[in-house]
């Protein structure tokens, strides 16, 4: 018998992810630090390049943290950022490899055809939770994402578009509030615009990554990854208590599939 997280739509998934973030405010602090790196990557010259590299390396780590915390929340376990950090560090090379392939594939699709690039971005987006949650290597996690995302494309697109609209909306508000022109932004520094970017990243990005983790957990291929072997992640009673009863936390209820 396999146990899966109850499926939700795009909005329901984002609401659940927001609740997970509320219970784990440390993720906001961590993503805030990443947001600072990302914002400073717009600095001119070598300094900007160094910040860009640091931001690229950091986002792999912080996204992985969100995915592991999402798994802990889904299981009804107490969130443990230290344990999550250990898991991400152990899987970092695989995450890095999957990220490089992901970026190259999506970039190629965007440059030559645009729509295929967007399709690949969505279809491969679950590779990273697959990597840290189910201990998969780079190639295996990308293959898993390709399989799991099929049938969930509308939900993933809905999650991504919602975040995009919120982010762009926040940027427009900051743009209007500072009364800047595009030329002003290119030539000068706007503290309000800078702060808006960092704050939106600190709150919005972990919600999106937690939502991706939930989508993966709702559809993870148990029968393929666990058959014939002992689970490396120690999941013999996923989502259940020691006496075999179902765990409930908020609206997260588990359903059993025979």
Q: What does the model show?
A:
The chain is mainly alpha-helical. It has a domain at about 1-90 and about 150-220. About 70% of the residues lie in helices and about 5% in strands. The longest helix is centred in the middle third of the chain and has 32 residues, at about 80-110.
Task: Please describe the topology of this protein.
Elements: E1 2-5, H1 10-23, H2 26-40, H3 45-75, H4 81-112, H5 115-123, H6 127-133, H7 138-149, H8 153-178, H9 182-187, H10 191-219, H11 222-226, E2 254-257
Antiparallel strand pairs: 1-2
Termini separation comes to 5 Å
How many β-strand stretches? 2
What strand order characterises the main sheet? 1-2
Helix share bin? over 70%
Strand content: under 5%
Q: What would the average pLDDT be, to the nearest integer?
A: 83
Query: Using only CA atoms, what is the Rg?
Result: 19 Å
Order of helices and strands: EHHHHHHHHHHHE
Oligomer: single chain
Features:
two-stranded antiparallel sheet; mainly alpha; 258 residues; single chain; globular; 2 strands; disordered C terminus
Short recap of the structure:
This protein has helices spanning 10-23, 26-40, 45-75, 81-112, 115-123, 127-133, 138-149, 153-178, 182-187, 191-219, 222-226, and strands spanning 2-5, 254-257. The protein is mainly alpha-helical and 258 residues long.
């Amino acid at each position: 018998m396999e146990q899966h997280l109850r499926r939700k739509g795009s909005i329901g998934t984002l609401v659940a992810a927001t609740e997970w973030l509320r219970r784990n405010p440390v993720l906001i602090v961590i993503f805030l630090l990443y947001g600072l790196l990302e914002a400073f990557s717009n600095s001119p010259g070598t300094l900007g390049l160094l910040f860009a590299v640091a931001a690229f390396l950091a986002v792999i780590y912080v996204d992985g943290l969100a995915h592991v915390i999402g798994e802990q929340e889904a299981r009804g376990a107490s969130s443990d950022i230290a344990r999550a950090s250990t898991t991400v560090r152990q899987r970092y090379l695989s995450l890095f490899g999957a990220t490089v392939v992901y970026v190259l594939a999506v970039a190629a699709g965007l440059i030559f055809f645009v729509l295929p690039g967007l399709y690949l971005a969505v279809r491969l987006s679950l590779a990273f939770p697959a990597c840290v949650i189910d201990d998969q290597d780079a190639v295996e996690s990308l293959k898993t994402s390709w399989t799991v995302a099929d049938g969930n494309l509308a939900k993933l697109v809905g999650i991504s578009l919602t975040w995009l609209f919120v982010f762009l909306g926040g940027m427009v508000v900051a743009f209007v509030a500072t009364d800047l022109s595009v030329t002003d932004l290119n030539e000068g520094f706007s503290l309000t615009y800078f702060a808006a970017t960092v704050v939106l990243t600190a709150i919005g990005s972990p919600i999106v990554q937690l939502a991706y983790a939930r989508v993966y957990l709702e559809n993870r291929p148990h029968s393929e990854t666990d058959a014939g072997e002992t689970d490396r992640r120690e999941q013999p009673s996923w989502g259940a208590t020691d006496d075999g009863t179902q765990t409930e936390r908020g609206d997260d209820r588990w359903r059993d599939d025979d």
